[in-house]
Write a structure and sequence with these properties.
Length: 125
C-alpha cells in the first residue's frame, strides 16, 4: 500500500513543499537539514537528497561524528517496516556530497543496498 501511495501526485507535491521549506530553515538555523527533491524516473519512485545534515554537523562538532553512519542506517529499518525498498548510494557521514534517499521501483523490500557502502568497505555505490 505504501508503495502505491508513493506514486500519487499529492505525495510528490508534499515532498516538493517539504524540500522548499527545508531551504528556508537551512538559511536560518545552523543545524537544520537541507533537502532537494528530484522527479521520479523509471528506476526510482521517490528521490530526495539531503544536501546538509543538521545531525551530522552537530555530532561532528561535538566529536561524535563517527556514530552518524549508524544513525543514518535507521532509515533502512524504517523503510523496511513500511514495506518500501530503500536505497542510499551517497551518505554525507561517509564523505559524500549528499545523502540520497531513494525508493526503488519493483525491488525487494530488503534491498541489496544494505549495509550502505560506507559500512561495507567495498566502496561500491
Amino acid at each position: 500500500m505504501i508503495i502505491s501511495m508513493l506514486n500519487l501526485t499529492l505525495v510528490h507535491t508534499a515532498l516538493r513543499s517539504f524540500a522548499e521549506k527545508s531551504r528556508r530553515f537551512a538559511e536560518q538555523y545552523p543545524y537544520a537539514w537541507l533537502f532537494e527533491y528530484a522527479e521520479p524516473d523509471d528506476e526510482y519512485s521517490v528521490k530526495i537528497y539531503c544536501m546538509k545534515c543538521g545531525a551530522c554537523k552537530f555530532l561532528t562538532e561535538k566529536g561524535l561524528g563517527n556514530i552518524m553512519p549508524y544513525l543514518c542506517n535507521l532509515d533502512f529499518v524504517t523503510a523496511e517496516k513500511f514495506g518500501a525498498p530503500f536505497y542510499r548510494n551517497e551518505v554525507i557521514a561517509y564523505g559524500d556530497k549528499c545523502c540520497a534517499s531513494l525508493i526503488k521501483r519493483n525491488a525487494p523490500v530488503v534491498t541489496d543496498n544494505f549495509p550502505p557502502h560506507g559500512l561495507r568497505g567495498d566502496e561500491l555505490k
